[in-house]
Amino acid sequence: MNRRGFRFDLGWRALVLAVVGFILIQVLMWLRVINPYWQQIGCLAGITAISALGLNLVYGYTGQFSLGHAAFYGIGAYGAALLTRTLGGNIWTMMLGILVGAVLAGLVAFAIGLPILRLRSDYLAIATLGFGIIMKVLFDNSDAVFPMMGGAAGMTGIARLTNFTWVFVVALGAVMVLRNLVFSSVGRALISVREDELAAEAVGINTTKYKTLGFVVGCMYAGVAGALYAHLYAYLNPANFDFLKSIDVLLVVVIGGLGSISGTLVAAIGWTFLLEGLRVALPASVQDWRMVIYPLVMVIFMLVRPGGIFAGTEFSFLKPREYRRKR
What's the domain range around 171? Predict the structure, then answer.
């Protein structure tokens, strides 16, 4: 890893651990220890992790408080779904759909990022929240222009192409890219903007450039996650991309720890399985109380561990060699 620039690199330890974990899960799936239902929940956890990694880049590393992340998630989902419905569902259109979802989300993020990233703190949060609400209204009324999108009734007829292999490979690539970005000169510049924007400007860092870069790349992650989500459930509804969905991803980032890839991965997987586990474990008569249990868990966690699970630290195998602590 060259600290002066960006170079794509991942340590052998991390790669070996990923491959071993993938093989182990595949064996458990083949033996039916992990049934199709929990396979689907595992895929959802991986998709949540990809989206949360993007928000962690925007908020955790760059310090831009965004509440419109679900809007870019929806842009990627609808963009990819429209493509595969038009061209047919196969491995090649799936790959193209993921690319289209990322590019569409990135282009929209760039278009709105230039004006709103001049705002800071609460004002930026309100602006991104407003954008998210606008996109939710557009999704609700999309059938007026594109009937196949279904509008408020939802979009159907999407090929079910997402499986564990797709999610694992894309998530691994997302971690590799973010890890190399963070431990580079670009990552140092992003963190300097988060820590003190005025000081960063004083030493010659183009803060507008780096805030826009972090915002666009983070939203592209949401677009990729949306493309995978669209082909996991084969149905899209605008309610899946409202304000509360942005809060869900924000909770994952905060619980995991701002500025921590490791924390985001652990929190995304743990949070997804916790929500689904409560839905399965709780009796039907108290299912509605889940919406009380979730924030209660969050409040208790923030009191006990306000910095998040990892509090900005990483697993050693995710760090470049020169960043690891010598024994």
Answer: 12-243
